[in-house]
Amino acid sequence: xxxxxxxxxxxxxxxxxxxxxxxxxxxxxxxxxxxxxxxxxxxxxxxxxxxxxxxxxxxxxxxxxxxxxxxxxxxxxxxxxxxxxxxxxxxxxxxxxxxxxxxxxxxxxxxxxxxxxxxxxxxxxxxxxxxxxxxxxxxxxxxxxxxxxxxxxxxxxxxxxxxxxxxxxxxxxxxxxxxxxxxxxxxxxxxxxxxxxxxxxxxxxxxxxxxxxxxxxxxxxxxxxxxxxxx
Length: 231
Hints:
By secondary structure, the chain is of the alpha/beta class.
C-alpha cells in the first residue's frame, strides 16, 4: 500500500487494485508543484470526495472528464454532477460500503459543512460532509475529512478498528493538533497517524509537534508532498 500526500487534504492511495485520488485540489494549491500533476494522477481509478468545498473538490471534475474516472462520494453532490456535468459517478451515503477494485470503502460521519460556489458567488448546498473507512491489504484507513472531534468516533473504532488515521488537524476550519490528538487518544488505537489540512496557509498550523508529543506510542508521520508512505 502507498499513501501519497498531494498537499492540504489531497491524497493518492494505492490499495488493492484501486488508485484513489482523495480530495484532489491541485490547481492553485500552494503546496502542490504544478509541473508534477501527471505524476500525481497517473493510473488513477477513482476520485473520492469528502465534501463539496473547493479546497477538496478542486480538480476533481477536470480529472474525471480527462481520464474518464468516476467521482465517488455523497449521493447529493455526485448525482447533481452526473446530471449537470455528464461525469461518471458512484453516489452513496453514510453507513454504506462500496467495493472499489477490491478496496472496501465505507462512508462515515463528519462534523463540518459542505457547499459548492454558485454562479453568483453564493454557496450552494452540496450534500453532507463525510469521512471514509478504506479497508484492504490487511489494513483499515480512517480518513476523517474536515471535522471536529465527535463521539461518533467511538463507534467508528468499535466497528472498523482502523490502524491508520488521516486526520484533519490544521485548526480554524477543522480540529487543530491538540483536538486531533485528543480524538486519537480517546477513541482510536492507531499504529500510524498522518495529519492533513495544515501547512497550506499561515492561518493553519504549520507542524505536528503537539500531535507527536501527545501520542508517543503512535507513528505520527508528517507527510511530504509526492513522497509515498509505504505501509
